[in-house]
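seq/struct pair 1
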Amino acid sequence: MKHDELSRERLLERIAKLEAENEALAARCASLETQAAHPASPYEKIILKLINDIKLGMVVIDQSHRVVEVNQRFAEMLGYSVGEMMSLHTWDWEAVSNREDIEKDYADLSKVNFTIETKHRRKDGTLIDVEVSGAGMKIGAGPQDNVVLCFIRDLSLRKRAERLLKESEMKLRAFIENAPDVIFTLSADGACSYISPNCERILGYGPEQLMGGGIFELIEEPFRESYLRDVEAAFAGNPNMVCEYRLKLREYSEWFNVKFSPAASIGGEDIVICSLRNINNGKMNQERLEYLSMHDQLTGIHNRTYFNAVLQGKEGRLEAPVSVIVVDFDELKKVNDGYGHAAGDEVLKACTELIKSVLRKNDIFARVGGDEFTILLPGATEESAELVIKRIYGKIEAFNLLGRLPPISISAGAAVCAEPLDTDEMRLSAPLFYLEEAIKKADERMYSQKREKALARSR
């Protein structure tokens, strides 16, 4: 019984399919008869050839919304044969509007005139983007004689390109908004003509606040002149310059670098594309490393590396005459052995602070050995240096009376380098020689004092 019912259903499906094919065939035959009765003129043939050559789909639909004529191109767009298309209605391929909407919106095809973008459903179920231009007309007296001629352009490639472009723009925007660099452009007058929206996150100011002269206003005063020179150099063709400036943010200032690209012409206007990056942490680390390389970690004063740079003229000129004081601790080893190295370190730091308290701002004070210090006094005579030593002894004596640490005892010697150290021809070689001689003399005087103290203690 079930087998008979299944066979009957299949037979009915087959009959329905044959009826549809016959109906399509009859419609096609009627179309061919019409064409035979009214053969296309040479002009019409040219029009049809042009339509096919420019890859436009064409379809004529009657008032029942059924295909009465179609070209090969439109059939190919939808994946049907021309014969299969002759049995279809508009709603068989229209994916945006349903049958009810189509019959309602296009109740009188003779009045139709439109160009729309929509989606068509192919035979395999996939969708394509199309542009449809339709023009209605009457080909007879009755309403059933209304038809619409449609030209269809496949927009799949364009839509795909638009989607890819939109995705690319979204990715680029996401990248720019989350990038560590602010991108901005400068016109020839130095005004900011574009700035990426991540400026608000990085700089604390929105694009509308930084356009025009906003970037320049952020740059701290000491760096503004060099910034203007750098912009001018970028427009002059200097390639890929990277310059550093301090920028004033809302609550503090930080270091940034700006990379200037070579000038380019966009839309007839010369611009420079710049990237701005926060380098504050790196700059602070660099400055910290530079500080540590030139300073003694225990006492915080300059070390031998810095002192040697001074002697070689790398830290600027010294005003003559330059006096030298050499200081050495007396019996620091006994302090370390008797009280411990921590106590010895505290004695060194305390003595350093006492000496610093009697020096001027431009005096150079360096720890050049474990318990040996050297002081340079620019523009000071030997007599002035001796007065400094007396003041140091006075500070130490007063400190020792407090009894906070093991007693501090030092020996010191002074000498003067009277040669002119600020002339161009003396700057590179002479200062080192003459200062070394003065240091040697001060060192001898310090050791002479140390020997006298040792002899006094032995009596």
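seq/struct pair 2
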Amino acid sequence: MAPGRLLLLDSATLYYRAFHALPTSLTGPDGLPNNAVRGFCDALPALVAAAGATHLACAWDVDWRPAWRVSLWPGYKRNRVQPAEDDAAGPQDETADELAPQVEVLADVLDAAGLARVGAAQFEADDVIATLALRWPGEVVIVTSDRDLLQCVSDDGRVRLLSMARGLAHLQWFDAAAVQERYGVAPHRYAEFATLRGDASDGMPGVPGIGEKTAAALVSRWPSLPDLLVAAQEPQSDLKPRVRKALVDAANVIPAWAEVTRARTDVEVVRLGVSDAAAADSGLPADPLTAAPTSDAATTHATLTDATLTDATLTDAGVVEHHTALPATARPELEQVLAEAGVARSLVKWRPTLLS
């Protein structure tokens, strides 16, 4: 039996997009804003349909700014950190205060619907997506607005990316050829390209004076960043003096930047929102936010990366068929959660594609 096509959703990019696209005047029965929840729930069936997916996993940021990445580069996502109330540098950003409660509601909605939320302790959604994209034996469609996940696109067409960067009305497909055409590098070299270019949105400065074109040319010419840095140290290499000097000046931080930019493919993915009783019955690790995983990470990794990986194994990891019908006993709970969240109308859209 074919494993099916897995949609890996970068959940944060969708709920952030919904939060900023829809007015906070949209509220639930409790009078609190629910624009992010409503936008997410309305968009999800359309994304499943656009991807032609048979399976769905919503990747969650268990840790959106992991300490291990910050230790490598302290500036990582520092620009997104909310300043302290007594910080004279600027006013508090109210986005987090308005969005955070909605993220909790959204988690309840997805859990009640039986849709998989997956995450990994001390890792970001990018790492979860990269790990499952590698482990899934069939086709994978990554849905995100994040360019960094282009590094997960495969040369053989098995893993593609559907970008929301231009909006839900203008979804853009990326396979290996499209990545090469747009950025001038193969997907498996994209992280190195991004390391040199930088990404201001993540607080990654890149090498001064090296933009997209130069970064693409350097990555295409040298087989790895270490090889490039060696060439920069050699006076006889034909690197332009300006480029050589920029690389030499940044040589001590480029390896750290590269490690921060690379999406990890070896993390222990668990199903989030699973009760202790359900976890005990299914053998799943408990929610990593509240308890240590019960399974051995090395054993889990070895099992999940086995070439004979089965659908059942990935189901245990939190990947479920999106069209699996909910038990009749779960429907009232779902309808109640949707009603309390103020998105009951989403159930009508979900029935044909997500809750058949």
